[in-house]
């Protein structure tokens, strides 16, 4: 940071793993400009181009994305929105662009809101029967409640008979799981900690709204963009409102909690068990409960049969192992 009053540059921090940083202690009438460098195992890059001078007094109350639009792109959490399902063709409000993906739920396309030019994603679902429609309506109602920076945001929704469309926040960084299996990506414990803090932040908000995700796994955590360590939790199709006696029997075997396998009552600890498994996978690259087949995996989960293999975990901190050990606990009645 360059302080115009001293005519000197100073280093603010060397420990940032995202594209944002809060600068403290600026004088209200001061003038400052900024530049950044990248530090990795090879060394330190040359400083970036300098920003324009910024005065806290002049910019008070102005949104960050208006000051630094290139940094803000794809990083912004939406302002809270009152979403009402509209009975019209989404093409009247959005330009539908190229296909991004396809699955059992339907097709996802990139889209652009005509009025704001905001880049979003349009999830097209064909509701062939009442059950399909109820599932989509349920996901929409859940997402209306879950307005938080670490959760994928619903921006708009449309219902045209059999064709239902959810307009979603657009993220382009790919699955967190892709970074786990990428041999060229060195996932350090410090980076895992940064990911886990965000995951826990999102899960905590869901639980504060009495909602369980019930399908937490690395594939359902997206990086906002390729060069960012900020994440979004996605896929609320299996999420449920917390109610006494709630039981479920769905999810991905190696990330299920024992109460799901045994068809017992689920709770906040069900999601936290899955978070513990995610933490184990991120730190070690291994799955703690993986068996030779799904049946053996489910038995391992039910019995809480896992361990820290010494050769893999020797260089992992006691605190990280303690966190995993405290959430991967089978409750005995």
Automatic annotation (TrEMBL):
Keywords attached to this Swiss-Prot or TrEMBL record, sorted alphabetically, are: ATP-binding, Kinase, Nucleotide-binding, Serine/threonine-protein kinase, Transferase
Q: A Gene Ontology molecular-function term?
A: ATP binding
Q: What GO terms describe the biological role, i.e. biological process, of this protein?
A: intracellular signal transduction; positive regulation of apoptotic process
Domain Fibronectin type-III, by residue range, is: 1-58
Which of this chain's residues are annotated to bind ATP? Answer: 123
Nucleotide-binding: is it a keyword of this entry? yes
Q: Which family does it belong to?
A: Belongs to the protein kinase superfamily.
Pfam families per UniProt: Pkinase
**SMART domains on file:** S_TKc
Query: Where does the Protein kinase domain lie?
Result: 94-333
Whether ATP-binding counts among this entry's keywords is yes
Q: Which organism is it from?
A: Stichopus japonicus (Sea cucumber)
Gene Ontology cellular-component annotations: nucleus
Output the InterPro entries linked to this UniProt entry.
FN3_dom, FN3_sf, Ig-like_fold, Kinase-like_dom_sf, Prot_kinase_dom, Protein_kinase_ATP_BS, Ser/Thr_kinase_AS
What name does UniProt use for this protein? Putative myosin light chain kinase, smooth muscle
């Amino acid at each position: 940071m360059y302080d115009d009053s001293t005519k000197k540059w100073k280093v603010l921090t060397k420990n940032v793993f995202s594209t944002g940083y809060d600068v403290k202690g600026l004088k209200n009438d001061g003038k400052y400009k900024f530049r950044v460098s990248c530090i990795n195992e090879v060394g330190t890059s040359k400083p970036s181009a300098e920003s324009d001078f910024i005065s806290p007094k002049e910019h008070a109350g102005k949104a960050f994305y208006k000051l630094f639009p290139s940094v803000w792109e794809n990083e912004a959490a939406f302002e809270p929105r009152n979403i009402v399902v509209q009975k019209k063709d989404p093409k009247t409000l959005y330009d539908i662009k190229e296909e991004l993906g396809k699955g059992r739920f339907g097709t996802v396309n990139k889209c652009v809101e005509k009025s704001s030019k905001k880049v979003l994603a349009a999830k097209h679902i064909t509701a062939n029967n009442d059950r399909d429609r109820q599932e989509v309506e349920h996901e929409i109602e859940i997402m209306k409640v879950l307005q938080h920076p670490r959760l994928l945001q619903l921006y708009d929704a449309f219902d045209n008979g059999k064709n239902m469309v959810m307009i979603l926040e657009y993220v382009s960084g790919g699955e967190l799981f892709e970074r786990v299996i990428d041999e060229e990506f060195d996932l350090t414990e410090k980076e895992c900690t940064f990911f886990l803090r965000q995951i826990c932040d999102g899960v905590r908000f869901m639980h504060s709204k009495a909602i369980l995700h019930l399908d937490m796994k690395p594939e359902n955590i997206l990086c906002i963009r390729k060069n960012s360590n900020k994440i979004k939790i996605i896929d609320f199709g299996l999420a449920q409102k917390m109610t006494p006696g709630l039981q479920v029997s769905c999810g991905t075997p190696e990330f299920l909690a024992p109460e799901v396998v045994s068809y017992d009552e689920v709770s906040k600890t069900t999601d936290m068990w899955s978070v513990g498994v995610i933490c184990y996978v991120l730190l070690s690259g291994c799955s703690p409960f993986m068996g030779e087949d799904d049946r053996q995996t489910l038995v391992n989960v039910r019995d809480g049969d896992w361990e820290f293999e010494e050769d893999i975990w020797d260089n992992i901190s006691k605190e990280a192992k303690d966190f995993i050990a405290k959430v991967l606990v089978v409750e005995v009645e």
